[in-house]
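ARCHIVE CARD
CATEGORY: sequence design from structure
SOURCE FIELD: tokenized fold
FIELD CONTENT:
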């Protein structure tokens, strides 16, 4: 018997009924747009159609948790066309004030709360860096490609939840 650590996520079909929400911050939009683009390409690569994914643009990382929470309330049962996955994408770059600490901390706390209350995966994709260059290195397709990583993590978690719920 496989443990959850050994789970082969390819064993469980995703199906065409999935509904995925990507919530992305407009603030530091050059970074977040690249992450969303890479995320969408990866979801499509793994068989998700564009009509299965809704993108919600919010002003900044601060607004990500409340949007995730509202989306969590929309899902009653998976079979009722509710949300199966939320991927939250944002970027908070440290500046000269403590604003960074408040925004990054509350985005993290709020998305954690949303994830614990949702009955579907909520993927945390908020970059917190000291500089724009660090953020770009993590976000860009030529760099760490976090958008791709977030999509793959989300699909893994959908499959894991499906396996657990069987």
């Amino acid at each position: 018997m496989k443990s959850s650590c050994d789970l082969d996520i390819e064993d469980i079909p995703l199906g065409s009924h999935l509904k995925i929400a990507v919530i992305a911050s407009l603030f530091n939009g050059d970074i977040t747009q690249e992450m969303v683009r890479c995320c969408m390409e990866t979801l499509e690569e793994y068989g998700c159609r564009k009509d299965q994914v809704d993108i919600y643009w919010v002003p900044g990382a601060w607004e990500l948790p409340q949007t995730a929470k509202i989306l969590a309330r929309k899902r009653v049962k998976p079979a009722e066309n509710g949300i199966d996955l939320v991927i939250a994408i944002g970027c908070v770059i440290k500046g000269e004030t403590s604003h960074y600490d408040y925004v990054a901390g509350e985005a993290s706390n709020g998305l954690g709360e949303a994830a614990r209350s949702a009955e579907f995966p909520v993927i945390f994709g908020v970059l917190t860096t000291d500089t724009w260059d660090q953020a770009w290195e993590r976000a860009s397709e030529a760099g760490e490609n976090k958008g791709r990583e977030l999509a793959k993590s989300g699909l893994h978690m959908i499959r894991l939840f499906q396996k657990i719920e069987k």
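CARD ANNOTATION: Confidence is low (pLDDT under 50) at residues 1-7. The chain has five helices and four strands.
SHELF: design records, drawer C
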